[in-house]
Write a structure and sequence with these properties.
Chain A has helices at about 5-20, 25-35, 40-60, 65-80, 85-90, 90-100, 100-120, 160-170, 195-210; strands at about 150-155, 175-180, 185-190, 215-220. Chain A is of the alpha+beta class. Chain A has a 4-stranded antiparallel sheet. Helix content of chain B is about 65%, strand content about 0%. Chain B has 9 helices and no strands. The longest helix of chain B is centred in the first third of the chain and has 23 residues, at about 20-40. Classes of the chains: A alpha+beta, B mainly alpha.
């Protein structure tokens, strides 16, 4: 049985019903009342019209210019560098190099690979920088690592899927260590100091071949 | 609707200083956050400055995000606070907490007269005349798709106030439209 209080409560919920943000219980209660309450049905029709116009009004508003991203990442560049995380401080690469037993080396290699895969897995779904969102005037990059090794500078394709990028980096055994720099460039660590120039080039070639995801890849000091 | 299922993971990565995650989050939410800010500061350049400040706050405070609300609700809360501060500084701040029950302008202006023939256009004109206090709730519900509780968190009022404030604004909308000769059939 509906009471005046119930009616008022339902009437107030109409916009939230139209917006699709009621809980399942609220929605069921609302829809049950809707079938028997003509006033509530008119309320919902009015709310739908309001929603349509609000969407139109908002869509007519401008988008932020690239200046907003410029300002943001310039401010981030100016922020004090953060302490490296626990894994970075453990210096897995250094520990790996110090191990001499082939058996231990094998286990350590597996652990390092697992870590890279784990990191790639954290690159969850989403799209990378859309064409209009590159920032181009960020101040100079802050070095986040000085670990010896092989590095590359890459720029991802506009709209590249983060899952796909994660898989690519995992496959190449690469980790993002810095970025984005001006122009949307990232610095990747491809491997330790023991990675040969030929192996480094092979990894960079693999990145370049992924043209749907990478628009630029080159060795970096 | 924005896909924000992995926003918490992005925040966790941002907390570790991951710029790729920061850019992904910024790209995902910049448009809606900017439009929300623009309602308060009414100036695109100023709104862009506020937008950058909002995401800088996210960069700095990502480690404190506890996941009690969605990331977008958290973002909009920060955006509202900073936009209101900016609006007050710019001295043309329209916001007055005590004016929450007011509708900005109920006059039957020539544009509404012209719009009588088009119910949709008339409604749009009347929505534009809502006070900032009412309009932000209307936007948060219909455009940002926020629940009663989420709007309450962003605006900083009790959930019951969110519902009654929105209901009152909608009733006033109908009254204004009726005076302009447009009957939308409710209430």
């Amino acid at each position: 049985m509906t009471t005046p209080n119930n009616n008022q409560d339902l009437a107030e919920l109409a916009p939230f019903y139209v917006a699709g943000v009621l809980t399942p219980d609220e929605k069921a209660r609302f829809e049950a009342a809707l079938t028997q309450d003509a006033d509530l049905a008119r309320n919902v029709a009015a709310a739908r019209a309001e929603r349509d116009e609000i969407l139109a009004l908002n869509e007519a508003l401008p988008a932020p210019s690239p200046r907003a991203a410029d300002a943001l990442f310039a401010k981030i560049d100016a922020e004090p560098a953060r302490k490296p995380g626990l894994w970075a401080r453990l210096d897995l690469g250094g520990a790996l190099a110090s191990l001499v037993s082939p058996r231990a080396l094998g286990w350590a290699t597996a652990a390092a690979c697992a870590l890279v895969v784990l990191q790639a897995g954290l690159l969850t779904s989403g799209k990378l920088n859309a064409p209009d969102t590159h920032y181009s005037s960020a101040s100079g990059p802050t070095e986040t690592t000085h670990t010896p090794g092989a590095y590359a500078l890459v720029a991802f394709a506009p709209g590249a899927d983060m899952d796909a990028v994660g898989a690519l980096l995992s496959g190449a055994g690469a980790q993002i260590v810095e970025g984005p720099r001006a122009g949307g460039f990232y610095r990747l660590r491809l491997g330790g100091a023991d990675l040969s120039p030929a192996e480094t080039q092979k990894k960079i070639d693999a990145l370049r071949q992924a043209r749907a995801l990478v628009r630029f890849a080159a060795p970096s000091p | 609707m924005i896909q924000e299922g992995d926003d918490p993971q992005l925040i966790a990565r941002i907390a570790k200083g991951d710029r790729l995650a920061m850019q992904a989050l910024f790209n995902r939410h910049r448009l809606r956050a900017f439009r929300f800010i623009l309602r308060f500061v009414r100036d695109e350049a100023a709104a862009e400055d506020v937008l950058a400040e909002v995401f800088l706050d996210v960069w700095r405070r990502a480690g404190t995000f506890e996941g009690r609300s969605s990331v977008s609700t958290w973002l909009l809360s920060i955006a509202r606070f900073k936009a209101l501060s900016q609006a007050r500084q710019r001295a043309h701040a329209p916001y007055d907490e005590d004016a929450a029950s007011e509708i900005a302008d109920e006059s039957d202006d020539p544009e509404i007269e012209i719009a009588k023939r088009d119910k949709s256009a008339a409604l749009r004109r009347c929505l534009e005349k809502l006070s900032v206090e009412h309009r932000e709730i209307v936007d948060l519900v219909y455009y940002h798709e926020k629940s009663v509780e989420e709007v309450a968190q962003i605006v900083g009022v009790p959930a019951a106030t969110v519902k009654t404030r929105l209901f009152y604004a909608r009733q006033k909308l109908s009254e204004i439209l009726k005076r302009a000769g447009v009957d939308r059939g409710w209430p």
